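Problem 12. The chain below contains 88 residues. Write out its predicted structure in token notation.
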Amino acid sequence: MSPLCRASVLALLLTTFTVAAEPAVYRSTFDSYLRWPAEPTPPAWRTANDEMGRLGGHAGHLKHAAGEQPARQSAQPDHKGHHPGSRP
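Solution.
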């Protein structure tokens, strides 16, 4: 095939199969970003500490939410039967 023929075929192919593309448009990923709602300001540590003491500790608030009264803890916990070989 002559060089002129190759050039003609190449030109024909390029003009036949060229697709007009739309120009690329930049769109930031953050365009659809939704901000997380602001969290409320936590209470002062003394207020939170007093509330946890009133409820009976860090797990006492769960009982309170279920309608139960928070249990008061005794000064000395009972450890009978916790350790193997312990005396009654």
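Discussion. The chain has a mean pLDDT of 75. Students who got a different answer should revisit the alignment rule from Section 12.3.
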